[in-house]
Amino acid sequence: MSLAVTMPAACIDRVGGPIRIAALPVPRPGPTDVLVRVAASGVNHVDLFVRSGAYRTHTPLPFVIGRDAVGSVVEVGAGVAAFAVGDRVWCNSLGHAGRQGALAEYAVVAADRLYRLPDAIDPEHAAVVLHTGATAHLGLARQARLQAGETLFVEGAGGGVGSAIVQMARFMGARIVATAARRDHDWCRQCGADVLIDYHDDDRYEQARQAAPEGIDVWWDTSGRNDFAAVLPLMRLGGRAIVMSGLRGGAASLPVGPMYTRDVSLHGFAISNASVSDLAHAATAINRLLAAGRLNARIGATFALHQTDQAYAAMAAGQLAGRIVIRV
Questions:
Q1: Domain total of the chain
Q2: Degrees (nearest 5) of the Cα angle 149, 150, 154?
Q3: How far apart are CA 223 and CA 246, in angstroms?
Q4: Residue 153: which domain range?
Q5: What is the average per-residue pLDDT within 208-235?
Q6: Which domain CATH number covers 65?
């Protein structure tokens, strides 16, 4: 197939600058790279952090934004044997650490960061669960070491990451207590939550105690409140707490006493720091759930590539109930 010389791409010319749609040269894959024609991508908050400069990372300019790419292989490097032209593939670690992003007609992906898309999975369906699904797997499997039969308490289960955590934990065999806005309770039940609590309720932690009188093994608050003092009395001996607040989390009091007496461990992580091996393990789990129809997301809106700035504005406004797809 003959490739065009240039391609449309959503990029920034300076950190903190506006998004523009530019005609950039079609990138060429190196010996261990794959050139992917992008069909769809998702919109993630971390892209806002990178674009603004709040999350410091190497951004060669002009810098194409976007983490997640779903598409098909159009060219492989001389040293790549795992993929062939025409393969349906995905990646969720572009747009960071010098890697150009996914929001362009074509993207170069290192072969060890690329994974096959299961048969019959729609690219747009996949695009909105790749980042959240990997985040959920890293937190539950690598950080918390969640085991079948344990009790997980998820706060903010109605959001993209929260609902992915619930689905991943259900797949891993956990019992799930969750807080969410009442309008999201049906969705969270579909994802696999056993007990739902309205997060507006002042007695939500007492309700959680009643729902798990034997104690909570893993606590993950996706909201950024991180009320350790209220939750630690609910946790079992050896419990694990996951911290993941993006850049929204402010200072939180750390109740050392209850952590000490309960052997509770605190784990903080960012998917951006995940190793190639970590991401590959997460990709295996994601593909298993996708193939089984057990990793889903609500799509709140779909935008075209030339509407990328509108897509990010919509996410920042927080007015959509669901994930945002960009159709490339």
A1: 2
A2: 130
A3: 10
A4: 133-272
A5: 93
A6: 3.90.180.10
